[in-house]
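Milestone M4 deliverable, item 7.
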Amino acid sequence: LMAVVKLSQSSATAFDILQQRSLMLKVVIFMGGFGTFKRKWAQQLYDIIFNVSFWTCGTVCALNLIYQKTPYHNFPTDALTAYVHFPAWQSWYAWRKYVQTKGCAELLFRAKSSPEREAKL
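Output delivered:
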């Protein structure tokens, strides 16, 4: 709990706290486009690389509907695979903005320091 209190006071995000607990979560968060860097140029480079990779994947999925090469399955399945890139990117964008807000940090702090939770431990 003290780690959460210290991080909450230094404007840590939920992802910052999770990354301290597990190396695997750190890798998943980084590969999922939620990595954060202190230097602005590094953050911009990371964001560009993530978005280019994401939309390259979406484009290849969409082109596979036309060319129907391996790993083509059937039209409905592959159409859904190509389409899912749009709501997935919107969700990523919205969540990425939300976890950087003060409201998210407060929610995390309250959840971690609730008396009910402390009683169960």
